[in-house]
Amino acid sequence: MKKLKRFILVGGPASGKGTQGRYLSDTFRLETLSTGALLRREIENCTALGRRAQSYMDQAKLVPDEVVNDIVRTWLADADDSSWILDGYPRTVAQAETLDNFLSQRGLGIDVVVWMDVSRKLIEQRILQRRECSSCNFVVQNSTLEICPKCGGTMTTRKDDNIDAFAKRWKDFESMTLPVARYYESRGLVVKISVTEEREACDVSRELSEKLNVYAESKD
Ligand code: AMP
């Protein structure tokens, strides 16, 4: 049986990528790079990269491909080649092509692309409720929570979690990130997970686990 070890996690804003990324990371013991979380940390630390990214993120725009590609290349060069998760990357077909080239030069490939499928309406509701820990990135749907129940850090509302920013992020998602799903679908790599209002994060994790097992068994 083929071991499923190099994961990509893609989906709309607030689709639960971060939460499911942590689940996959714990279940399969994988190192994770969340490009969004890394960029937010760079902004907090006022680095040159943070300043560059901030001008885009403040306008709810995607950070340019070359900036994000560099981040991912640097991270992958230091990561264990055999297993990792990329959360929130690639978000454009150009990023996906760059990643393919980089991996194929090293004789590597992607094993699974987890696609978090969620409706615009649900994402909009979630974004208005969402709070994220500034230390460990734990996410809750509770707009009044101040202290992180996991690590005691400060819960904050992300700057880009508001209606206007959301409308822009959704537009970019439809025009630039949905084609990434099709790009990987055509290669049979996508495991689609449906996120609905009724389903708790743990239900989504269970389905993810089941689907990945079936997927693993069907691949040699
Ligand atoms: P996320 O935490 O994944 O929702 O990402 C937050 C923000 O970081 C996005 O709205 C983008 O501005 C930026 N970002 C994260 N990943 C990427 C990427 N792969 N390409 C371009 N911008 C990104």
Structural features, described:
It is built from eight helices and eight strands. The chain has helices at 17-28, 35-44, 48-57, 65-78, 93-105, 120-129, 163-185, 201-218, and strands at residues 6-11, 31-34, 84-87, 112-118, 130-133, 139-141, 155-156, 190-195. The strands form two sheets. Strands 2-3-1-4-8 form a five-stranded parallel beta sheet, with helices on both faces. Strands 6-5-7 form a three-stranded antiparallel beta sheet. Helix 1 (17-28) crosses helix 8 (201-218), helix 2 crosses helix 3 and helix 4 runs parallel beside helix 5 (93-105). Bound molecules: adenosine monophosphate. The site of adenosine monophosphate has 16 residues, from helix 2 and helix 3. Residues 13, 35-36, 39, 56-57, 62-63, 68, 88-91, 95, 160, 169 line the site of adenosine monophosphate.
Bound molecules: adenosine monophosphate
Instruction: Describe the main β-sheet briefly.
Output: 5 strands, parallel
- The secondary-structure class comes to alpha/beta
Helix content: 40-55%
In the sheet with the most strands, the strands line up as 2-3-1-4-8
The helix count comes to: 8
> What letter string, H or E per element, gives the SSE order?
EHEHHHEHEHEEEHEH
The average pLDDT score comes to 89
Low-confidence stretches: none
What descriptive keywords fit this protein?
220 residues; alpha/beta; binds adenosine monophosphate; five-stranded parallel beta sheet
